[in-house]
Amino acid sequence: MKIETVFSELKQLVKAENVKFDEPLFDYTYTKMGGNADVFVTPSTYEEAQKVIKYSIQHEVPVTFLGNGSNVIIRDGGIRGIVLSLANLTDISLKESKIVAQSGARIIDASRFALEHDLTGLEFACGIPGTVGGAVYMNAGAYGGELTDVLDHAVVLTSGGELLKVDKEELGLEYRKSLVAEKGYLVLEATFNMEDGNHDKIKEKMDELTYLRESKQPLEYPSCGSVFKRPPGYFAGKLIQDSELQGVQIGGAQVSTKHAGFIVNVDNATASDYIAVIEHVQKTVKEKFGVELEREVRIIGEDPATARASESLSG
């Protein structure tokens, strides 16, 4: 099926200005790298998102979900088919003592919303750069807190395009993972259980965590955040530091000299540069300490050498 046809037909299902052809994904990732999306769609409603999913099923067009690009590396060959972003779905509201946040809202903003309403429980998220949907996807956490601590339920689109309310227990939330991808869910919104708190104490905690983040993390460079999961019994950053890898650079990607758990884009890095550094770090730590570093960051898309021409999805 011609990608131009997909582009044209999706503009009949979603507001035309929210459907883009051959869209560079550079500006949609925190690493500031990645190839183009054949068709990039940003629905404004749940119904529009549902239409896109059902269209992709009916016409057998691959669809890739993209949050705000904070925990993902998009390969230089880009992404074939449809890239679906919920960046337009950012509403956050209060329902009794629960916070309801749409998938495209930043989890940082949900944390700040909680502060504004003197609700405690989301302080740990005040420095996590991802979206609410991404936070559910990976059970995001920081400084001793995780999403599973406060999540009540999520509203998702199933792989068949059905709207479904899913309780926390059904999402299989574990350390930096969930069953969202395995079940083919697209998270549309999340509801958090909150408790009444003292405004000044909540703010004090958030200020403390913000200071820790800004003082220790290399926020001056584009990056995908913490690259590796914490290995049982170890800290990834300490293993990398003890392997004398800080400052190691391939192309424009470098192991941060400020925080060894980060890989930063210091000089117009490509995704291939970034991935090469990741693999070098994994290999070196394995050789020195016998520890397998598992990626926390997702790698999606195609290498330039293997990417198909985007004139036709069927080749």
Report on the structure:
The protein has eight helices and 19 strands. By secondary structure, it is an alpha+beta fold. The protein folds into three domains: 3-85, Uridine Diphospho-n-acetylenolpyruvylglucosamine Reductase, domain 2 (2-Layer Sandwich), CATH 3.30.43.10; 92-201, Uridine Diphospho-n-acetylenolpyruvylglucosamine Reductase, domain 3, CATH 3.30.465; 217-300, UDP-N-acetylenolpyruvoylglucosamine reductase, C-terminal domain (Uridine Diphospho-n-acetylenolpyruvylglucosamine Reductase, domain 1). A hairpin with a 5-residue loop joins strand 11 and strand 12 (163-167). The longest helix has 19 residues, at 271-289. The N and C termini lie close together (9 Å). The model is unreliable at 309-315 (pLDDT under 50). One of its GO terms (biological process) is cell division.
